[in-house]
Amino acid sequence: MGISNILFIVLLAGAAFLFYRNFGKIVRNIKLGKDLDRSDQSDVRWKTMARVALGQSKMVTRPIAGILHILVYIGFVIINIEILEIVLDGVLGTHRVFAGFLGDFYVTFINLFEILALLVLLACAVFLIRRNIVKIERFWKPEMKGWPASDANYILFIEILLMSAFLIMNAADTVLMNIPYEDISATSLAHYGETGLVNPSFVVSDFLIGWLPNDPNTLAFIERACWWFHIVGIFAFLNYLVISKHLHILLAFPNTYFSNLYPKGRFDNLASVKKEVEMMFDPSIDPYATPPADENPAPVTFGAKDVSDLTWKQLMDAYTCTECGRCTSVCPANLTGKLLSPRKIMMDTRDRITEVGNNLDKNGPDFKDEKLLVHDYISAEELWACTTCNACTDACPVNIDPLSIIVDLRRYLVMEQSAAPAELNGMFTNIENNGAPWQFSMADRLNWKDEN
Amino acid sequence: MAEETLKVPTMAELTAAGESPEILFWVGCAGSFDDRAKKITRAFVSILNKLDVKFAVLGTEESCTGDPAKRAGNEFLFQVQAMTNIQVLNGYNIKKIVTTCPHCFNTLKNEYPELGGNYDVIHHTQFLQELINQGKLKFKGGAFKGKKITFHDPCYLGRGNNEYEAPRELLEKLDADLAEMKHCRAKGLCCGAGGAQMFKEAEKGNKEVNIERTEEALEVNPDIIATGCPFCNTMMTDGVKNFNKEGSVKVFDLAELVMEAQDV
Ligand code: SF4
Ligand code: SF4
């Protein structure tokens, strides 16, 4: 086992460990959320996941972005098979270990990978152009300033670099593999002639050969450099996921599996409120009786003031959000210049749960900072602009539900802080007093019958 | 509209007579009190009367479903309203409910069951569709010939409950040209009234939502903007007025259009 194998194994183990640890923190943070039962109807859930996450059914509603995205996605998944070979080569010290098994098929496979790599590369270039030159509006909203914009660009750059490295590596390797074996058999380049491939050439990287130098040792250096760059880049990318919106490539699957399967118009009935209202309606319950001993004494908050009042699914939504802005671009409030942006609701929720998680790591479970999701991150003005129209949930390609967070935060404003806009308080009073949101008497409810 | 005496039995009356209706018509607050929406209520009842549908209303026993309170975050008030209504509805042993308001429809259908109110709830466009399928509701044919109608999908009927077809099938019966707006069906743009916005001023912005939506409607040059929701109706009517188009573009509920075209 050579030094490079050991180095490779150390890097692989390091990357895997780091990812395991940091992704574990995200899972822990998601579990800080409240219980919610989404274990029913597993057949429908699998189908939803297959359709929305795997089949990307909601991406194609915008054909250009949708088709390009599917390309990058298929390319990314399939090219990952190639990574298996790279990892095996790295660990075993072999060169193109699959070539021996697959024979001629090997070249076909690599050709397919190369075509996909080229398409991914082009798609990423188009994405960069759309974001930075065409400046498509949804990528330039206020919440996209700074890190979110760079994050998106970094990912696209990294993908382009990784794909380029893959193609250049193949080009250099082709030249090396085509050197007559007797010329290199006694040198350190011998293994390039031992793959078992006869005069291999690959469909895309062949075009790059002309740009490469002729010297075999330089070529070997380029080949190795690209190989290392490619695989180390992928290790780095894996660990970049956990701090990036790119995490959606993993979370899209569980997140769509656990989608809300009720009609979108249905809002949940708060169980804590239900208990109290039932008490009001049931004369047999003595409101002054001491509660049974096993009852949880923790005070209930009606609605949500912070991320820990949200459900685990709402927090998973936040980590899954890919900041594409499709929700915001169809939001009637946002379209008419209001502050509300459903994407920002998701980004704020994620930033806040990340902060809460970091506090937990640094300062232990008893630490409380002075911040809340509502007011400190999401303002009342944003919340009150929502028409609850569900355009955002319909548009989201990974079935995120910004509306449910908006409603939970409104509930806190109304029921815990009595901070509804004055007109809404008037509406509440009317309903309370005369069973209608306006000041009409219940006795007049049938007057329409005789009016013309 | 001709003067018309409507037969509107209440549940209390029917029960006293030892009868029960096929279906309860849930009128809703807008349908009961809003001047424009009352016309929709009357149109719907007029259709029912002509077809001799055995229905009843709760009349003065009906109270707000609690929908606007719930959307505004006042879950407490919502549940009090819901339980009050459920007591009344269950007291009368109601099984089937039709409503002309998508908000009442959604709340009764989706949010009441967990609180003890289990009913078969349908929107009036679905009910009218059923009446057509049963061969009861018939059309004169040609009533709206040459008129261009565009349909505004109410959020709580469309996206909220996936009903896009019933209203469109009704429109087809009118012999009109159905022209779709650039945002329709699941992509339909809200009128701006939902989520309790109806009862408050909009937040600071650069436009009212109903103006945006009315612009989209006017782009197809309709003679009629059809809706299936009293709140959408208000918003679109205001929008049309804002563009000074109330002379040439009318906003109607599907019940009103069907009433016009009904063959009696
Ligand atoms: S539900 Fe609210 S946040 Fe979502 S699109 Fe409609 S108005 Fe915007
Ligand atoms: S919530 Fe969904 S639609 Fe909105 S930005 Fe995030 S991923 Fe995109």
Structural account:
The complex is a heterodimer of chains A (452) and B (264). Chain A is elongated and about 105 Å long. By secondary structure, chain A is mainly alpha-helical. The longest helix of chain A has 31 residues, at 147-177. Chain A has helices spanning 3-31, 42-54, 63-92, 97-102, 104-132, 147-177, 181-184, 216-241, 248-257, 271-281, 312-320, 326-330, 332-335, 342-363, 380-384, 391-395, 402-416, 422-434. Chain A has 18 helices and no strands. Chain B is built from 11 helices and 8 strands. Chain B is α/β, with parallel strands linked by helices. At the A-B interface, helix 10, helix 13, helix 16, helix 17 and helix 18 of A face helix 2, helix 3, helix 4, helix 5 and helix 6 of B. The structure holds iron/sulfur cluster (2 copies).
- Count of the domains of chain A: 2
Unique ligands: iron/sulfur cluster
Average pLDDT score of chain B: 96
Structural class category of chain A: mainly alpha
Low-confidence stretches of chain A: none
Strand order of the largest sheet of chain B: 2-1-3-4
Count up the domains of chain B. 2
Q: What is the approximate shape of chain B?
A: globular
Report the mean per-residue pLDDT of chain A as an integer. 93
Helix and strand sequence of chain B:
HEHHEHHEHEHEHEHEHEH
